[in-house]
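Input.
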Amino acid sequence: MLLATLVSALPAGASAAAPDPVGALVELTRAPLVVAGDAVGAVGLCAAAGIATAGDGIALVDANRFTRPVLRGVASGLVHRAALAVSWTSTGLLEALRGEDIERLPEAPATYLEAAPGTGRLATFLDGVGAGRLAIGDLLHAPLAVGARLVGARDTAERIAVRRAEARTDALGPLPLPPETGILRP
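Output.
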């Protein structure tokens, strides 16, 4: 039924190419990994933001100007390190399961260990929300990409892939630039 709907929604001539079962199998195999990576990243970034915010609350007690000489911010430092570990683990899994190296992930240690209380927490949480939206979008678009490849609508499948790459860039940032080849450009 999905294939019939997909074929009927295609513009004339879009399904003229031969079916691409190998491409469909690749899409079908990759989709669960990508969605799982997005979901792990979403939960991890939101959790890291919450844990770091809790650490900021503890820092009000153990790292203020009066208690810092005695307490040295030990408890809040441990909580901030836990938030950093959650962030790095979840974004590492996100990148590994997506098979992509995202330029601004993992987050810098300074975001958790050196930032003023509350700084960057909302940005981290919103990155997690963006990764969650990305997971939903990837989940919904995967069957369309598989169906397009099965019926031979390669242009449609490529447009879906480009839109998903744009959504990933919007949610998580760009992929790093490839290393320089040594060729000077004007």
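Residues 21-62 form the longest helix (42 residues).
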